[in-house]
Design brief:
Belongs to the peptidase T1B family. This is Proteasome subunit beta. By secondary structure, this protein is of the alpha+beta class. The protein contains four helices and twelve strands; from the N terminus they run ββββββααββββααββ.
């Protein structure tokens, strides 16, 4: 079993019309044994920027703490929040720095830029970025997430439709992966507000 499959995860970020949604499952497991059913995998950097961390849970928490530290230093020096593109480069550099003993994480980054244009990207454990204009996925359920998102996504969705699409894609995918599941956690971010919702899924 790969170390990336040790805890299990499903992460997806999707772009709408001047908004984006990022969603994750809620299961923390040790292989097939479930440890927790309310585990946080999406972390806030600032109001318009979020990172989802799939992979080894302990590395995800360590990496998030290092990223918060770096972002606070940036805020002190620059007196503004980091742009999503800049933050993606920071995460990439931080992961590549540790390439000979990497953090076993596959991040999904989603944010709104200056002109409220959504930005999403994902990368592997050594920081090779993959940019997309529609959706990005990560975690053990990524194969089924690709399929579900591919069939459900359409461009320029309004926030409510985007929420419905990402929720259905996530729930359909985790049902096909025994290492992730137990409901979902969705963040819907538009220029005006941030909505946080919890999904109920199969509990087996």
């Amino acid at each position: 079993m790969s170390i990336f499959e040790y805890n299990g995860s499903a992460l997806v970020a999707m772009v709408g019309k001047n908004c984006f949604a990022i969603a994750s499952d809620r299961r923390l497991g040790v292989q097939l044994q479930t440890i927790a059913t309310d585990f946080q995998k999406i972390y806030k950097i600032h109001d318009k920027l979020y990172i989802g961390l799939g992979g080894l849970a302990t590395d995800a928490q360590t990496l998030y703490q290092r990223l918060v530290f770096r972002h606070k230093l940036y805020q002190l020096r620059e007196e503004r929040n980091m742009k999503p593109e800049t933050f993606a480069s920071l995460v990439s550099a931080l992961l590549y720095e540790k390439r000979f003993g990497p953090y076993f994480c596959q991040p999904v980054i989603a944010g709104l830029g200056d002109d409220n244009m959504p930005f999403i990207c994902t990368m592997d454990s050594i920081g090779a970025k993959e940019l997309a204009k529609d959706f990005v996925v990560s975690g053990t359920a990524s194969e089924s997430l690709y399929g579900a998102c591919e069939s459900m996504y359409k461009p320029d969705m309004e926030p409510e439709e985007l929420f419905e699409t990402i929720s259905q894609a996530l729930l359909a995918s985790v049902d096909r992966d025994c290492l992730s599941g137990w409901g979902g956690h969705v963040l819907l971010v538009s220029p005006a507000e941030v909505q946080e919702r919890t999904l109920k899924g199969r509990m087996d």
